[in-house]
Structure formats: structure tokens, C-alpha cells
Amino acid sequence: MENGTYSEVSKFVLQGLSQIWQIQLFFGVALLLFYIMLLPGNILIIVTILKTPSLKSPMFFFLANLAFLDIIYSFVIHPKLLLNIIFGYRRISYLGCISQIFFIHFLGGAEMFLLIAMAVDRYVAICHPLHYATVVTSIAYWAMVAASWLGGFIHSIIQLILIIPLPFCGPNELNNVLCDVTQILRLACINTYTLEFFMFASSGLMSIASCILLLMSYGVLFLKVRMGSSPRKSKAFSTCITIIIIIIIIIIIIMFGPAIYIYCHPFQEYSFDKVVTFLHTVVFPLMNPIIYTLRNKETQAAMWKLLNNISYTC
């Protein structure tokens, strides 16, 4: 379709991680392994929580929702990544690109808000245990989950409202493994400085604010556990401190570090961008069950019991 002297772009080409076949194969195998671990692991988490009567507290309700978000994320993002990296299928339609941007920001935003809700839940449970039952009621945690989904949806819709009107007249090559606002804005045929600043405010600052809130919540928990420790509880205190430190490190380096890097530096192209995008897209959903579920002994015991029952039935 002609638009003045330019032809309107209807497809984009994702250049992938590398032109070297061996590097592509390495990342493709890594992605496949992550996908194989991610999908069954999150399904097992949800089934375990649903089938175990003792796992009916708000914390496990949040965990089940987090696992559900990761499952949707793996269905809508990872198959296209596999096609791109392993099979070299790098073309994506304009509608497919817009859809990818929508789900990346919708699910990513919902996860960030849900992690904050989980941190609030843990803060009330540990710092105000006597008021926990009256504060975190069924209405309250359902409202927090609904607000997380709604927040992610609103965040994503804002991105689309700003991107859809943009004219694309060529070139149509995206130097990455998926579509995102940082790449799309570079291809627009107009000056996008104002949009870049707004995208930084909506995505970059949201990532920074979420990271700071989570770190503050775990910092408070760290101090609370430390102040409440005694010689009898030294072993439990040491274990709890270790877990908190691990969570803080993973939050900064793996979860929010890549997102802050992607959306907070100027929308210019760097060779390291696509690797950071890959790690953030693939590793971030896998970390959630590892941090928030598999470190919980009660959940581990319930999972083993469920697996034993299934194997016994078979």
C-alpha cells in the first residue's frame, strides 16, 4: 500500500541473536531447556496448590497466579523465539509484532505488580502477624491480584496507543529476537524523541520503582528477622538471611536489572541489547517458581506427595 512516496511496512524481519550458526544453536538449545523446565514446573505448582488443602493461604494464592502468568508468557512469547533462533524463521507481521509488544508489557507489568503484592503480603504476615487475618482477607488478596492484572493491562495499552499511529516506511529490520518498543521506535518515519521519553517514564521508571519497593520490603523483613533473633533461633535466622540475600541478588541481577537496562538507557542500539533481552525474556519467568516456590519447604513437601500419588496411581 502506498503512502506518499513510501511503501508502508507490513512485515518486520527479526535479525536474531547472531549470524553465526553455532551461537544461534547454543542459545536455541538453552531456550528449549528453559522452556521444558518452565512449563511443567509452573503447571505442577498450580496443581499442587489446588490439590493441597493446607496450601490455601493468600501466599500460595499469589504463587498460583504468578505461575499462571508465567505459563501464559511461555505460550505467547517462547514459541516465536524458538522459531526465530532454532529454525531461522525471522519474519513477523505488523499485527504479530504489535501483539508481541502487548503481551510482553501486559504480562511483564502484571508480574511486577503481583510481586509487589506478594511482598506486601509477606510484610504484613511477618511484621504485623496479629493483624494479618483482618488485613489480608479474601477480598483483599483477590483485589490485589485483580489490580495487578489491570495495572499490567493499562500499562500495555498505553504502549500500543502510542505505537499504533506511528508510520513505518522502511527499513523493516529489527536487530533483536522479538518486537519491543525500543526497537519499533527506531524504525518510525518521524521524530520519536518525545515518545522515547514517555516510554522511558512508563516502562523504565516502573521497573525502577518496582525494584526499589521490593528491595525495601525485603530489607524491612531482614531487619525484622534480625531484631527478633535469639541464640536459640540462630540457625533459622542464618537460613532466613541467606534466602533474603539470594532473593535480593536475583531481583537486582536477573529480574529487574535487564528490564532497567533495556528501558532506561537512551533508545539507541547497542550490541549487548539483544543478549540482555533474551536473558530477561527467558530467565525471568523461570526464576519466579525457583525463588518463591521451590525455596518453600511446605510447597516442596506437597509437590513430592502429589508426584508420589501420581506415580503410585500409574
Helices and strands in order, then pairings?
Layout: E1 2-3, E2 6-7, E3 11-14, H1 21-51, H2 58-76, H3 78-85, E4 91-93, H4 94-127, H5 132-135, H6 138-163, E5 173-174, H7 181-187, H8 193-227, H9 234-264, H10 273-292, H11 297-313
Parallel strand pairs: 3-5
Antiparallel strand pairs: 1-2, 3-4
Radius of gyration in whole Å, from Cα? 21 Å
Q: What is the approximate shape?
A: globular
Separation, N- and C-terminal Cα atoms: 59 Å
Number of helices: 11
| Unreliable residue runs | 1-7
- Tell me the total number of β-strands: 5
Main sheet strand line-up = 4-3-5
Largest sheet features: 3 strands, mixed
Tell me roughly what share of residues is in helical segments. Answer: over 70%
Strand proportion: under 5%
Element order, helices and strands?
A: EEEHHHEHHHEHHHHH
Average pLDDT level: 78
Structural class from helices and strands?
mainly alpha
Question: Mind explaining what this structure looks like?
Answer:
This protein has 314 residues and is mainly alpha-helical. Helix content is 74%, strand content 4%. It has 11 helices and 5 strands. It has helices at residues 21-51, 58-76, 78-85, 94-127, 132-135, 138-163, 181-187, 193-227, 234-264, 273-292, 297-313, and strands at residues 2-3, 6-7, 11-14, 91-93, 173-174. The chain has a 3-stranded mixed sheet with strand order 4-3-5. The chain has a two-stranded antiparallel sheet with strand order 1-2. Strand 1 and strand 2 form a beta hairpin. The N and C termini lie far apart (59 Å).
